[in-house]
Design goal:
It is built from 17 helices and two strands. It has 396 residues and is an all-alpha fold. Helix 3 runs antiparallel to helix 9.
Length: 396
């Protein structure tokens, strides 16, 4: 993402999707609708479908035509989501720094230790003492089962696809907006097609590694809030992830209350979007509020987007129908004064690479037209001469 799209966004298995993957699709001890390997196959194919949708520009267009009140609410809802998740883990103190708090939490004979003298604490401490370790990809790396003859695999694939379209697309777009990279006119951001394609490609590659759908993760906002605006931020994150593979005992022993404070602060920064939402008209305010509140309460960005879009269509659709039927005699309060006009942003629905070919074909047509006209102009004197000769012959 950092190298190709130059965006400060990291990728990892999605929080809401991995819960759906584990508990609803695969089930406890494989008691779900399909096996673990078949679920990975559904994710693998979903990634490639996602890739072609991104290549055609449909994902970009979907988020660009969303009402602005909902776009702002998604960003603010993600901020609440981050803060709510961390509030369950923060112990009420303002943290000086992640590593300082971690070091304080590692000694065992303290009341704030991460390794209490319990069975769970002993297991955590035994793993922590290894410091450096490496676990090769064994079972999960070859678990994928391409059994597409099972109809339930396609059911899981469709579910993953529609949730990912809303979840991943909304997250990536919100991160780009939070970083100030969105064009205020076209409502798109630079290299969006490449970013969405990279995002989709990683879904399929993650399935080969045994993981649930990979997505642009909301914690990218922490790096953005510290000033990260380019792909160098994401590449640094990737390098840190690579190092953490070998130092997993150390990094996995960082307590949740050490990282939570930073994310709560980031959540408070992202929720500033609410001041730009149009709260003066019910058709904009209610969908935005539902989006804002459903995301953190359901732990799922897609559910919040669905709630916002459906409520927006219902409220404004009913208002539009009443206006048409009553010939503008029945209208919501403050409709003409306060409602936010829904507009299709300027710019093509197609991504840049398709527009290049379209421009070439258009230029070819123009060239052919010019050549035809020029040929006609050249042939016209000859035709006039021949007509003059015929006329003289007739006269003679």
């Amino acid at each position: 993402m950092g190298l190709l799209a130059n965006l400060p966004v990291g990728l990892a298995p999605g929080l809401g999707l991995n819960a759906y993957f584990a508990y609803s699709v695969v089930g406890f001890h494989g008691s779900g609708i399909i096996t673990y390997g078949e679920a990975l196959a559904a994710v693998f194919l979903e990634g490639w479908i996602f890739f072609f949708l991104s290549l055609l520009g449909l994902r970009q267009w979907l988020v660009r035509i969303m009402p602005q009140s909902l776009v702002l609410a998604v960003g603010a809802g993600i901020g609440l989501f981050i803060a709510l998740l961390m509030l369950y883990r923060v112990r009420g103190a303002i943290l000086i720094g992640i590593f300082l708090v971690s070091i304080i939490s590692w000694p065992r004979p303290t009341p704030v230790t991460y390794f209490p003298h319990t069975d769970a604490g002993d297991a955590l401490f035994d793993f922590f003492k290894k410091v450096v370790t490496f676990r090769p990809i064994g079972i999960v790396g070859k678990a994928i089962d391409f059994n597409y003859r099972n109809g339930k695999v396609w059911y899981a694939l469709i579910t993953f696809l529609y949730v990912d379209i809303l979840d991943t697309t909304g997250t990536l777009y919100s991160m780009a907006k939070f970083a100030g990279l969105r064009d205020p006119v076209t409502l798109d951001f630079e290299n969006s097609t490449i970013a969405y394609c990279v995002d989709a490609f990683c879904i399929s590659m993650g399935a080969l590694m045994g993981t649930s759908p990979v997505t642009s993760f909301v914690e990218s906002a922490t790096g953005i809030s510290e000033g990260g605006k380019t792909g160098l931020t994401a590449m640094t994150t990737g390098l840190a992830f690579f190092v953490s593979v070998f130092f997993a005992p150390i990094f996995s022993s960082i307590p949740g209350w050490a990282t939570g404070g930073a994310l709560v602060i980031v959540g408070s920064l992202m929720i500033r979007n609410v001041k730009e939402i149009n709260w003066n008209y019910i058709g904009d305010a209610v969908p935005a509020f539902l989006t804002l509140i459903v995301i953190p309460l359901t732990y799922n960005i897609a559910y919040g987007v669905i709630a916002g879009i459906v409520s927006y269509m219902l409220i404004n659709g009913i208002a539009l129908a009443l206006r048409k039927i009553s010939n503008d005699r029945i209208i919501p309060p403050n409709y003409y004064e306060e409602s936010e006009e829904w507009v299709i942003p300027p710019g093509s629905i197609f991504p840049g690479w398709i527009n290049v070919f379209r421009k070439k074909s258009d230029s070819d047509k123009v060239y052919e037209t010019e050549m035809t006209n020029a040929h006609q102009d050249e042939s016209s004197p000859k035709e006039s001469q021949e007509s003059e000769k015929k006329a003289l012959t007739v006269v003679e």
